TrEMBL record:
FMN binds at residues 84-89, 136-139, 171-180, 206. Keywords: Endoplasmic reticulum, FAD, Flavoprotein, FMN, Membrane, NADP, Oxidoreductase, Transmembrane, Transmembrane helix. Binds 1 FMN per monomer. Binds 1 FAD per monomer. Residues 277-516 form the FAD-binding FR-type domain. SUPFAM superfamilies: Ferredoxin reductase-like, C-terminal NADP-linked domain, Flavoproteins, Riboflavin synthase domain-like. It comes from Glossina palpalis gambiensis. Signal peptide: none annotated. The keyword Transmembrane applies. It catalyses: 2 oxidized [cytochrome P450] + NADPH = 2 reduced [cytochrome P450] + NADP(+) + H(+). This is NADPH--cytochrome P450 reductase.
Length: 672
């Protein structure tokens, strides 16, 4: 019977399409028509120059990672790669690429993490091509996160880079042991792989004047490039805006960034994983004063990270995104005659760049100055050069131009008037009355506000859902009589959980600063002031292991501060660990007697103890705190102890210390 029914339909004894079939067909056709035409632009909308689209988390995901294609398509021959952790190397790269046009080298900035770096082999196919690398050294001589893959590629690979023209500028700090290690290695390695060095390696020292180092190197770099390619500069520098302004009058409120780092509404709709582009809003549970007297302040802060899925180990860092002081934001708005609540976007004029905006857009000027820009930092010389064009008084214009120049007089004036006087952008505009820059150009010029990193002062073995921070409030009078305030610590100081729920955006950064894997190994910790922070976590963990019945080696802490009665932080806790037999505590209170005593003096006195722990028992040595003086002094003392107690020559003692570093038996968590 079934076969007969089919036969009847086919033979035409029933209609081919019933009423219901026709109705369904009409619906399908209509639906298909809507689907294929729904994304077509209406004729009347074709004249719009810009459609408001919030920036995404990473433009790399939706853009071609071929920098060669971009260079060829836009007629460029200069590519400047950057390895940046705090934004300075990226800023220097941008300045070099921008200046290339003066020398008939149209340039682009590139993040090696977003590029196929094996394409360096093809760069020689572009006439007069040049690759410049602005690379910072980070941590214990490591490449920055975004340069890690490139660094590993040239380290482990054997690519033939014959025909590649290159130059390298490094960003480092001489107070650190591995000064500019990454740039020095990359410069040498590129040559080993067959590339041609167009100009000598430049080394910038952030402990001195890295801006001066950069512009001095840059001033000699360009003539060398011109000689190499047989080209001439176009003479006078032309100031070019990198971003164009678009002001919005009708943008929907839910499409405006209000402080998010990357994803729109990420602070309202939190979802893991949490990292630098997606921080976790952590409630502050405790914010208490640690100092018992004096006119300084040190905060103990406890963050609640429950539910974040973030994990940490003792020795890791917590990063926090601060906001700028509201009064400073208001002052800058007034000085620029700006409506801070106006919604705007800055759009990159280089359509090939993966960086479409300097910060999340669209947003208001108030949000940009509060959340996204370093308005309290000391401006670099290129900013002064651009500000000069807004001076109505010729003397003011020449004054700013001179400080932005490479003349000895200009450099000296910049050092004294800007750097030594600690003038930020607000102070400069206050003191040069005729300078009235447009607020959008100021937003383009200022660097991005960076997260601040703190050594975690707790152990996850005891506090798996909490992160402790130990931070000194930064405030100081400048030579001009102004009171400068640290951005992050001023922000934290105002976060009082007793007045209601307060949260801060944070993420965890892993560290190599680790306790020995075997708890029975003895350790020596040197942490004056807030340098004690990570060691508080170490000691908590060692106590926890002892409480579990495990064998734990000797733990010796050298702590120093000004006065025992004022700034001996965590005194009661540390004394309790001493009473329990977990800790040997050595203290130096520099101002409690006529002759100042520091932790370095205690280390010198304990030569026998240190040799026993480090030389005879293969203990681990840790140092946390000031890199410029204390860390250097401590290292020198250790070399001296190794020489005298270990009967080593100077070279052998230095080599022994380097071996300890390689074995992770000597670790430093220092800052300058």
């Amino acid at each position: 019977m079934a076969d007969g029914k089919i036969e009847n339909v086919v033979s035409g004894e029933e209609p081919f399409l019933g009423t219901l079939d026709i109705a369904l067909l009409v619906i399908l056709v209509a639906g298909g028509t809507w689907y294929f035409t729904r994304n077509r632009t209406k004729p009347e909308e074709q004249g719009r120059t810009y459609s408001i689209q919030p920036t995404t988390v990473s433009t790399a995901a939706v853009t071609d990672n071929s920098f060669i294609k971009k260079l060829k398509a836009s007629g460029r021959s200069l590519v400047v790669f950057y390895g940046s952790q705090t934004g300075t190397a990226e800023e220097f790269a941008g300045r070099l690429a921008k200046e290339g046009i003066r020398y008939r080298l149209k340039g682009m900035v590139a993040d090696p993490e977003e590029c196929d770096m094996e394409e360096l082999l093809q760069l020689k196919d572009i006439s007069n091509s040049l690759a410049v690398f602005c690379l910072a050294t980070y941590g214990e001589g490591d490449p920055t996160d975004n340069a890690m893959e490139f660094y590993e590629w040239i380290t482990n690979g054997d690519a033939d880079l014959t025909g590649l023209n290159y130059a390298v500028f490094g960003l480092g700090n001489k107070t650190y042991e591995h000064y500019n290690k990454v740039a020095i290695y990359v410069d040498k390695r590129l040559e080993e792989l067959g590339a041609t060095r167009v100009f000598e390696l430049g080394l910038g020292d952030d402990d001195a004047n890295i801006e001066d180092d950069f512009i001095t190197w840059k001033d000699r770099f360009w003539p060398a490039v011109c000689d190499n390619f047989g080209i001439e500069g176009s003479g006078e520098e032309v100031l070019i805006r990198q971003f164009r302004l678009l002001e919005h009058n009708d943008v929907q409120l839910d499409r405006i960034y209000t402080g998010e780092v990357a994803r729109l509404h990420s602070l309202q709709n939190q979802r893991p994983p949490f990292d630098a582009k997606n921080p976790f809003l952590a409630p502050i549970l405790i914010n208490r004063e640690l100092h018992k007297g004096g006119n300084r302040s040190c905060m103990h802060i406890e963050l609640n990270i429950e539910g974040s899925k973030m994990r940490y180990d003792a020795g890791d860092h917590v990063a926090m995104y601060p906001i700028n002081d509201k009064d400073l934001v208001e002052k800058l708005g007034l000085l620029c005659n700006a409506d801070l609540d106006l919604v705007f976007s800055l759009i990159n004029t280089d359509t090939d760049s993966s960086k479409k905006h300097p910060f999340p857009c669209p947003t208001t000027y108030r949000t940009a100055l509060t959340h996204y820009l370093e308005i309290a930092a000391i401006p670099r010389t290129h900013i002064l050069k651009e500000l000069a064009e807004y001076c109505s008084d010729e003397n003011d214009k020449q004054f700013l131009r001179s400080m932005a120049s490479i003349t000895p007089e200009g450099k000296e004036k910049y050092q004294s008037w800007v750097q030594d006087a600690c003038r930020n952008i607000v102070h400069i505009l206050e003191d040069i009355n005729s300078c009235k820059p447009s607020i959008d150009h100021v937003c383009e010029l200022l660097p991005r506000l960076q997260p601040r990193y703190y050594s975690i002062s707790s152990s996850s073995k005891l506090y798996p859902t909490k992160v402790h921070i130990t931070a000194v409030l930064v405030q100081y009078k400048t030579p001009t009589g102004r009171l400068n305030k640290g951005v992050a610590t001023t922000y934290l100081k105002a976060k009082n959980p007793e007045e209601g729920e307060v949260k801060v955006p944070v993420f965890i950064r892993k560290s190599q600063f680790r306790l020995p894997t075997k708890p029975e190994i003895p350790i020596v910790m040197v942490g004056p002031g807030t340098g004690v922070a990570p060691f508080r976590g170490f000691i908590q963990e060692r106590q926890h292991l002892r409480d579990e019945g495990k064998q734990v080696g000797e733990s010796i802490l050298y702590f120093g501060c000004r006065k025992k009665s004022e700034d001996f932080i965590y005194e009661e806790e540390l004394e309790e660990y001493v009473e329990k037999g977990t800790l040997t505590l050595k203290t130096a209170f520099s101002r409690d007697q006529e002759k100042k005593i520091y932790v370095t003096h205690l280390l010198e006195q304990d030569a026998d103890l240190l040799w026993r722990v480090l030389g005879e028992n293969n203990g681990h040595f840790y140092i946390c705190g000031d890199a410029k003086n204390m860390a250097v002094d401590v290292r020198n003392i250790l070399v001296k102890i190794l020489k005298t107690k270990g009967n080593m020559s100077e070279p052998d003692a230095v080599q022994y210390l380097k071996k300890m570093e390689a074995q992770k038996r000597y670790s430093a968590d220092v800052w300058s």
